[in-house]
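Q: Predict the assembly, please.
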Amino acid sequence: MKRDAMSQASNAVLEVHGLSKRFTMHLRGALELPVLDQVSLDVSAGECIALAGPSGRGKSTLLKCLYGSYGIDSGRVWLHGDDGTIDLASASAQDVLSLRRRAVSYVSQFLRVVPRVSALDVVAQRILEADPAVLDDEAYAQAFEQARAAARALLARLNLPSTLWDLPPATFSGGEQQRVNIARGFVVPSRLLLLDEPTASLDLVNRDVVVSLIHEAKANGTAVIGIFHDPAVRDAVATRTIPFE
Amino acid sequence: MSPQPLLTVDGLTHRFAGARDGRPAVGDASLALYPAEVVAIVGESGSGKSTLLNCIAGRIAPGHGDIRYRDADDRWLDVRTLSERERRTLSRTEWGFVEQNAVDGLRMGVSAGANIGERLMGQGQRHYGRLREQAYDWMNRVELDTDRIDDLPHGFSGGMRQRLQIARNLVTQPRLVLMDEPTSGLDVSVQARLLDLIRTLVSRMHLSALIVTHDLGVARLLAHRTLVMREGRIVEQGLTDRVLDDPQHAYTQLLVSSVVMP
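A: Predicted assembly structure:
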């Protein structure tokens, strides 16, 4: 669904109008769980909004709706870009997949590991996915090496010990997995960045690294929506707070 | 934004002769597969997922419905009305089929190298050195020991046979690959390696693939989109993570909640 670009709020990257989401539990006698009711918000380029409020109010659900992991029951979710505007609430699977490659990044609370893939390649593959060109073996090897170099730099910045880089993250600690996840989320610049408790299991040093990464993303024009339980992190990065009561 | 599909299935229904309850094995199934897209068809035994795949592959002539494929020359082919010869040509050039049991997809009486070379020879390649070079290259790609190039697949383990079957199918750079439970029946560690291999090859070659599996983990790992089948019907389809994380249909909710997490 396209819309006249003139009517969009200045610089808005994302406009959410009346988003509602409920879960129907068919195995529990079709029990209805309304989670989000008529949520509206907008985020501009370079802005970071923090979703605040106690657990269970649907903050993570909202992020998953925006990423497309959850469907949206009603409402409109306009993602604006140079190439036009798309309504995420009604976007096709192909459009959502394409946006995930280039425009929207999501750092979930927990890393979903792929067997046998090293921490380094979990991050490097995110770069290759962003630009899925058909390459011959030589060009592919070269692109992969460049991607690995970028991944190494970011993992080093996040203080992940280099002895872990070539290992699959399945056996890593929570904080180590989280840093791989963060690297994967930040390694490709995005238009919209969704962060679900990115610093929850990090020590102070790495927490500060994530804060600077968020600052840099904002400076690059990324619109950020995040859940930050740590008030210090929230105060450091958020330009606005949206209460979820 | 969305390109044209590569394959479309519309209102496909198939009833096996003598089915006791009269219920079709596949009822009114419709789907589209896009270029470079991996779609999983999940469901339990008897849900009709393999029958659907076999109808698409042209191995079963469905009672009703439409199956169309856009070929490399951008022509839409009506798969159901292709002659036997045309279908054979298609299945050894633009299409691949990976069987659940590698024995069904390999020639057990000829060497690994000859298995890989067969489709190339079917396309008219005759130069022995070139054929051998490509067989060598593909054994490397699927992580098979090239020292075994002259060995018969009989002596290969289940995982090796499956990798050989994949090499044999992909050597001609098909555009569409159909896979029927490609990893079931293998040990878990062998499965993980094979899944990783399939994932890498499919994304490297920009293949379109339809993968039938009863394993939601396989769908999660490999598929962009997932279709859920039950009693011959597609009850739900969508982005894989959405189908698995926010299932809408009661049956999908049951399937997802029945998985034992490690």
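DSSP finds ten helices and ten strands in chain B. The mean pLDDT of chain B is 93.
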